[in-house]
Amino acid sequence: MVSVKSIACNPLLIPISLFTLSCVWLYFLVTIAPKLDDTHGLNQLKQLSSLLLAYSQLNSTYVFVLFCSAYVFKQTFAIPGSLFLNLLAGALYNVWLGFPLCCLLTAIGASLCYTLSAVSGKVYIVKYFPTRIQYLRHKVHENRSQLIYGLLFLRLFPMSPNWFLNIASPIIDIPIHLFFISVFIGLMPYNFICVQTGCLISQLKSLDEVLDTTTVLKLIAIAMVALLPGFLFRKKVKLNDKQNTN
Q1: Boundaries of domain holding 241
Q2: Of 29, 101, 28, 27, which Cα lies nearest the Cα of 65?
């Protein structure tokens, strides 16, 4: 039996154990369903969505549990694949259910990743990413008064490494409630675009059509707007300080 002392000596035991249990749970879900192959391309994704749509007519609860489990698993352990699952959500549930579902699952999974990092990942993350952690910690403390706007910008910006933000956030003193809100709201545009495209997955010819140049530029523009309140707030504070000094 694993003791508390052994866990303290090797904090990786926690994420490894959770990862193993999660894999067993997903394997169980897959084995009780029709044959589900690994999805690596658009054509396979179309076949998978058709299969799950047909199966959901017989057992919608099972398909929902499978989808939610896979999504949270992917987010918790920082595994790539948001694009495929968001497209699948659109194909299975349309925009009105698929979009809020993806936003919620993204925030839940990212928060679990945050928690795992806080409990057992600090030593390793600081060891392997010292420069990034130091830089982000400095920025967080520098912008503490308008932190939410900076967090939203990072999530809205399409080129941000969301996986790293998830594991670094507890180490650089970002509160969990601000973290959850920034993930839930900040990834809304990306999730919406992917889910909306998934509704028309049968007409999709290439994954490049999901995030084309125009779409990426729109996401960047939205990210810049998110910075505006923080910029105005800082400018107002500086102006007040100057007036008080005079």
Answers
A1: 8-245
A2: 29
Does some domain include residue 3?
no
pTM: 0.81
**Inside any domain, residue 2:** no
Residue 21 near residue 27, CB atoms below 8 Å: no
Rounded to whole angstroms, how far apart are CA atoms 155 and 223?
Answer: 8
Is residue 32 assigned to a domain?
yes
Q: How far apart are the C-alpha atoms of 190 and 220, rounded to whole Å?
A: 11
> If pLDDT is split at 50, 70 and 90, which confidence band does 230 have?
low
Both tokens assigned to 123: 């030593």
| Count of domains for the chain | 1
b/e per residue 60-79 (b: at least 16 CB within 10 A): eeebeebbebbbbbbbbbbe
DSSP letter (8 states) at residue 172: T
For the CA atoms of 125, 178, 193, 98, the dihedral, rounded to the nearest 10 degrees, stands at 100
| Cα–Cα dist 49/228, whole Å | 40
Q: Give the integer Cα–Cα distance in Å for 71 and 97.
A: 15
Cβ proximity of 179 and 163 under 8 Å: no
How far is 109 from 194, CA to CA, in rounded Å?
18
DSSP 121: I
Average pLDDT, the chain: 81
Residue 156 falls within a domain, yes or no? yes
